[in-house]
Backbone:
């Protein structure tokens, strides 16, 4: 779309540039013709004055006839120049009209494109709203379903597969990709209980890095959301367990609703 608009802009620019050059050349030629017409008129006046003087003399027919011939030639030349100037004036008006028509056409085209773009944005916003409502409805139903399931929460993290499974009782609720400690860092293995939840935590150790929906289970180690979703499924963290922020939110709410005592976190190699 941008490429088409750019091509259209350059074609319009070229049209106006060429028409402006043509108008300038046309005006230059018209000014030259006006000057030439003025000179021709002055020459005719001078010849007419001499003609009148010579006509009063006797036996001067040859000179008088030459003046008449010269005046006729100047008259014909003046008529031809005026016709040419009129033609150029008509051409100039036509070029101005074409420029005006092109400008109006481009304005209409731009308005139509803006209207279509606005309509496309409105449709896109409508689709997004419907999708969001559908997703929220599905999540609400899922929460209700999970609430009706009896049992404790078990969060299993497999370091070799970089995967997390979340259970409630015997039911598997979620399976998500995670990122755990990269080379040179350690994610602690073992069985833990969450001891603190933070909707938004900033790491003091690592340049105030944001840790949304943090679930702390041992010292400064936590399960939390991340923006580095491309790294999920591979070891990439400083020791914490990273997952998508929306998934971290689900786990955060699940643990908050069920309580620390009814939640276990198991991390194995």
Residues:
């Amino acid at each position: 779309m941008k490429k088409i608009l750019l091509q259209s802009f350059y074609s319009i620019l070229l049209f106006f540039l060429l028409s402006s050059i043509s108008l300038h050349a046309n005006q230059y030629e018209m000014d030259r013709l006006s000057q030439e017409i003025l000179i021709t008129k002055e020459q005719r006046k001078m010849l007419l004055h001499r003609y009148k003087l010579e006509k009063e003399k006797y036996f001067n027919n040859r000179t008088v006839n030459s003046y008449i011939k010269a005046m006729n030639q100047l008259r014909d030349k003046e008529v031809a120049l005026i016709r040419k100037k009129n033609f150029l004036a008509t051409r100039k008006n036509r070029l101005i009209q074409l420029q005006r028509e092109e400008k109006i056409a481009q304005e209409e085209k731009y308005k139509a494109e803006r209207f279509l773009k606005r309509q496309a944005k409105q449709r896109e916003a409508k689709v997004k709203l419907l999708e969001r409502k559908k997703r929220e409805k599905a999540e609400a139903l899922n929460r209700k379903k999970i609430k009706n399931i009896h049992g404790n929460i078990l969060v299993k993290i497999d370091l070799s597969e970089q995967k997390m499974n979340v259970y409630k009782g015997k039911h598997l609720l979620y399976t998500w990709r995670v990122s755990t400690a990269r080379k040179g860092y350690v994610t602690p293995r073992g069985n833990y209980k969450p001891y603190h939840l933070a909707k938004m935590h900033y790491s003091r150790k690592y340049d105030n890095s944001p840790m949304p929906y943090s679930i702390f289970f041992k010292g400064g180690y936590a399960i939390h959301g991340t923006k580095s979703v491309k790294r999920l499924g591979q070891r990439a963290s400083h020791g914490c367990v990273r997952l998508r922020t929306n998934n971290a939110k689900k786990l955060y709410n699940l643990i908050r609703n069920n309580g620390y005592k009814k939640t276990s976190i198991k991390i194995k190699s």
